[in-house]
Amino acid sequence: MSSYDVIVIGAGPGGYVCAIRCAQLGLKTAVVEGRETLGGTCLNVGCIPSKALLHATHSLHEAEENFAKMGLKGKSPSVDWPVMQEYKQSVIDGNTKGIEFLFKKNKVDWIKGWASIPEAGKVKVGDDVHEAKNIIIASGSEPSSLPGIEIDEETVVTSTGALSLPKIPKSMVVIGAGVIGLELGSAYKRLGTEVTVVEFLDKITPGMDGDVQKTFQKMLQKQGLNFIMGAAVQGVETKNKKAKVTYKLRKDDSEATIDADVVLVATGRRPYTAGLGLDALGVELTERGQIKTDAHYATNIKGVYAIGDAIEGPMLAHKAEDEGMAVAEVLAGQAGHVNYDVIPGVIYTSPEVASVGKTEEQLKEEGRAYKVGKFSFMGNGRAKAVFMGDGFVKILADKETDRVLGAHLIGPAAGDLIHEICVAMEFGAAAEDLARTCHAHPTFSEAVREAALACGDGAIHA
Ligand code: FAD
Ligand code: NAI
Fold first, then answer.
1. Each residue of 250-279: b (16+ CB within 10 Å) or e?
2. Do 173 and 299 sit in the same domain of this protein?
3. 404-411 vs 392-398, strand pairing mode
4. What is the three-class DSSP state of 283?
5. Alpha carbon 418 to chain centroid distance?
6. Which residues are catalytic?
7. Is residue 331 a known part of a binding site?
8. How many angstroms is it from 7 CA to the middle of ligand 1?
9. What region holds the Pyridine nucleotide-disulphide oxidoreductase dimerisation domain (predicted)?
10. Which residues form ligand 2's pocket by a CB distance below 6 Å?
11. Per-residue pLDDT at 43
């Protein structure tokens, strides 16, 4: 038995970042991880492998669609799927090994195995019981399916199965037009799969700004994705490695079916807390099964904290990381804090979609007076040069004070451009502050400045 200041359960972005920060702040720290490799969902079966496939398939698309236009002639590359899978695995391995290195460098112990909490101050792994002044649960999340659908990770898959299919399917039905469905759906479309997305609501990516939703769906349709909107999936039948999806259109209750080689169920994720012994310990959960915490990530049990996908809030790696750092600082006697008003969300399709702060719909609902500065990438020389003129930057600012309240981007490098606006929001900047900042030419960032100018006297290149 060993004794620690902090034991973190789970080595995803929440847990591993938290452990490193705890160690940096002088706390004796261990992490328990049951998986064979560190990095959690994000590095093993989430953010990292999906971005590897998105990058590879985007490169293929560039070669097929744009190379010849630039005078780069010759045969388009063909897809060697096993090699693409090896590439994806090498990206995963590089990243998970990197966390192992960081643990050694920071003197964080990795206790291998699955943890439970028999009582406050104790963590059980196998037959060993370790002592910890503080326990931080960072156990993450798992895919949630629908009633009537049995996942076999072969024909009916979650994102985990979809990232490692043995071959590229001829056809795929994606259930859910959320982040996972659209990222992976668009990657397979570029590989030649016939992709049909079936979505319960009438708009894709629920919660996003309405302008972005409309433009994004049009762009994806142009890329060849089919959408069946307002359709409630009733069930999936499988026979001889083929699937039949039954759905009911909400507008008239009519039922229809669609066949596919693979069905990707992407209808959200739920907190993963199985096996921790939370019930016996008396840890309070929310109605949605998330671990309840206060503003300092403390549960109702003294010395037990929780962060990341296992608690409330957006299920994003960077949100988990920020909470990990904040709780480490709280335990070290500092003022750990996360500003939930400025957490960016990015969808890594081509083009990327990025958003932060309030949507126009939210501002309308709040009855807040606002102004909109919008700039199309068509007016951005750099974007046009790389065939990425579709899309826009939209900045929402307070009508009176000009303070930036939100931003919504669809276009080249949107996932990077958003951070300039995040920093502005953290500093309580006005749109004019962005507009008066000199931006290098020719960059995609100039579109952000132009949108900020459009909040005032007007964009120059519009
Ligand atoms: P996790 O990463 O889920 O890690 C939890 C870890 O805890 C796991 O490794 C698990 O094995 C371990 N664990 C659980 N219980 C125990 C136990 N009892 N004992 C020991 N170990 C335990 N987010 C983004 O921000 N950007 C993206 O691009 C993005 N892409 C994604 C793509 C996909 C396909 C998926 C599925 C998710 C994606 N996400 C993305 C979401 C992101 O992966 C999660 O928000 C993030 O991983 C949450 O981090 P976490 O530390 O809370 O939990
Ligand atoms: P999601 O919550 O983004 O989308 C689920 C979609 O499924 C919604 O549009 C919903 O309306 C739809 N749906 C629900 N029930 C349905 C039904 N019966 N029939 C048809 N449609 C139905 O969930 P998703 O895509 O599974 O992602 C899970 C989490 O992973 C997200 O919360 C996201 O934060 C995270 N993630 C983040 C990424 C990123 O940041 N780039 C990438 C991938 C995942």
1. eeeeeeeebebbbbbbbbebbbbbeebebe
2. no
3. antiparallel
4. coil
5. 15
6. 441
7. no
8. 18
9. 343-452
10. 146, 175-181, 183, 198-201, 206, 232-233, 266-269, 314-316, 346-348
11. 98
Cβ 42 under 6 angstroms from ligand 1 = yes
Q: 131-158 as b/e, with b when 16 or more CB fall inside 10 Å? A: ebebbbbbbbbbbebbeebebeeebbbb
Centre of ligand 2 to C-alpha 204, Å, is 10
Q: What is the per-residue pLDDT across 82-121, written as a single tens digit (0 to 9) for each?
A: 999 999 999 999 999 999 999 999 999 999 999 999 999 9
Same domain, 134 and 277: yes
Same-domain status, 280 and 401: no
Q: How many domains does the chain have?
A: 3
Which residues partner with 137 through β-bridges?
9, 306
**What pLDDT, in 10s, does the model give residues 164-176?**
999 999 999 999 9
CA distance 423 to 440: 18
Q: What is the pLDDT of residue 148?
A: 85
* 323-353 burial code (b ≥16 CB/10 A, e <16): bbbbbbbbbbeeebebeeebbbbbbbbbbbb
Cα 171 to ligand 1 centroid, rounded to whole Å: 28
Tokens describing residue 101? 């290195």
The predicted model gives 375-379 an average pLDDT of: 98
Residue labelled with tokens 């971005």: 51
The yes-or-no verdict on residue 57 having pLDDT over 80 is yes
- Same domain? 161 vs 196: yes
Domain ranges, residue 390: 345-455
Mutation probe of ligand 2 site: the residue of 200, 346, 355 with most atoms within 8 A of C-beta: 200
Q: Is 110 in the pocket of ligand 1 (CB under 6 A)?
A: no
* Each residue's pLDDT tens digit, 183-217: 999 999 999 999 999 999 999 999 999 999 999 99
Q: Are residues 139 and 287 in the same domain?
A: yes
**Residue 53 and residue 25: Cα distance in Å, rounded?**
37
Same domain, 399 and 441: yes
Residue whose pair of structure tokens reads 């990990």 in the numeric block: 324
Does the pLDDT at position 1 exceed 80? no
Domain boundary among the residues 216, 237, 266 is at: 266
420 — pLDDT class (breaks 50, 70, 90): very high
The H or E element containing residue 257 is strand 255-260
Pairwise CA distance, residues 407 & 429, whole Å: 13
Q: Could you give the ipTM of this predicted complex?
A: 0.98
Specify the CATH number for the domain of residue 235. Answer: 3.50.50.60
Q: Are residues 350 and 328 in the same domain?
A: no
Are 132 and 7 contacting, i.e. CB atoms less than 8 angstroms apart? yes
Mark whether 405 and 420 lie in a shared domain. Answer: yes
